[in-house]
Structures are given as C-alpha cells and as structure tokens.
Specification:
There is one protein chain. By secondary structure, this protein is an alpha+beta fold. Helices cover about 40% and strands about 25% of the residues. Strands 1-8-3-6 form a 4-stranded antiparallel beta sheet. It has a 4-stranded antiparallel beta sheet with strand order 2-7-4-5. The chain has a 3-stranded antiparallel beta sheet with strand order 9-11-10. Helix 5 (about 125-150) packs antiparallel against helix 6. The protein starts with a helix and ends with a strand.
C-alpha cells in the first residue's frame, strides 16, 4: 500500500490528512488490497457491501444492467476516487448496481463501520475523515443530479447537447475532453450508439461542434 501513498493522499477522502496519519490506517481502518483483471466484476447487483472501495490504479465503471445486458454507466471511478460508500454505510442494503473494471485495477477496501466510528485510540485524523466522507457523498449526489438532467432530455440530440454543454462549463472553455469513448458515452446517456454517432455527425455538419475521439469543441 505504501507504493500508492501519493494516490491515497490525492483522494478527497483523505484530503487535509497528514501523511503520517494516512500510514497509520492499517491499524485503524482494516484496509485490504485486491487486484482485478480487465473487464472483471468487482461487485454484482444484489451483493452486500461493508467496505468502501478506493481505486489505487486502473479504472472501474459503476453500471446498471438490465436482463438483456444493456448497460447504463452511472459513474467512472479513477485512481484516488472511491465507490460503494452509500451502500457500505447502510448495512444490509443490497447493491442495485455492479462495479466492473475497464483495465487491470488495484483497489483498496476500507471497512465502512471503522471509517464512520472513531477508534479506541481516538485518532485525531478520524473526525476529518468522517467530514471528508460526507463531502464526497454530497458531491456524488450533485453529479447524479447532473446525470439525471442529461438523460431525462427527450431526444439523443438534446442529451448530447446537455452533457457537452455541462462539460464545457466545467472546463471553463469550449475546448475540452470527456472521460468516455463512444460506447461508454452512449451507455452514460442511455442512448443507442449508432443513433448517437449519427447525431454527433449532424451537429458537426451544422457547425455546432467539432470533435476528434474524446476531444470536443463547441462553436457559438
């Protein structure tokens, strides 16, 4: 775990927590590190979760899948980000989503009960850790609200423009990169990939945007 100290320090969960306090988590939070191959399920729908996952390397997608295998990407989780915290903090809550790797991935799992409750040693950093966890949960709630705003648009065109406009606003400029390839973007917006690709080409031909792979530029 020491090899990934810089990643842990960059995590919002450990924001403003001193390095020597982070290295003490082994005796406080019962951490466990697991390795996964590409396209491997870390968690399945229906699983019960008691630990918060923190990606040390690689990447995972939090997804919803229907009976026929159609996938809706809820979130992309990269090094330093956490997942599963809401389910882990509510005991006996079955997962409504799955977590799947997109590449070889290493994950640090932290016991949620130990994170939320100060240990017998009364570690000074623990209060900060709890505040950080609440901040992360609140931030993710805002992100889910943003996604809901995009996917509830009536047409594929409107969904694309809603999402790309929000990404441009986030970047504070009309030229930006998105974290998805075409299939992933279609899954995130809950649209057909072919229909989405056709709509992107129409928007380009109409002079509304330009794109190359995951790089976009909106034209006013």
């Amino acid at each position: 775990m020491e090899n990934y100290l810089s990643v842990i320090e960059s995590s919002e969960l450990f924001s403003r927590i001193a390095e020597n306090d982070i290295t003490s988590i082994e005796g406080c939070l019962s951490p466990a590190v697991s390795d996964y191959k590409k396209n491997q399920y870390v968690l399945h729908v229906g699983d019960s979760l008691t630990s918060i996952g923190l990606v040390l390397s690689g990447c995972v997608h939090v997804v919803q899948e229907d009976f026929w295998g159609n996938r809706n990407i809820m979130a992309k989780v990269t090094p330093g980000d956490i997942f599963g915290e809401s389910y882990a903090c509510v005991r006996d809550s079955a997962l409504a989503v799955s977590v799947v790797t997109t590449e070889s991935t290493k994950i640090l799992f932290l016991d949620a009960y130990r994170v939320m409750h100060r240990c017998a040693s009364s570690c000074e950093f623990h209060a900060r850790l709890i505040r950080n966890l609440l901040a992360v949960v609140a931030k993710k709630n805002l992100m889910l609200n943003a996604k809901l705003m995009h996917v509830t648009q009536r047409t594929t065109r409107q969904k694309l423009l809603s999402y790309l406009s929000a990404e441009a606003a986030k970047s504070h400029r009309p030229l930006f990169e998105i974290p998805f390839n075409r299939q992933q973007l279609a899954d995130y917006l809950s649209v057909d990939r072919s229909a989405m690709s056709n709509e992107l080409c129409k928007l380009r031909d109409e002079g509304i945007l330009r794109f190359e792979r995951n790089k976009f530029k909106l034209i006013s």
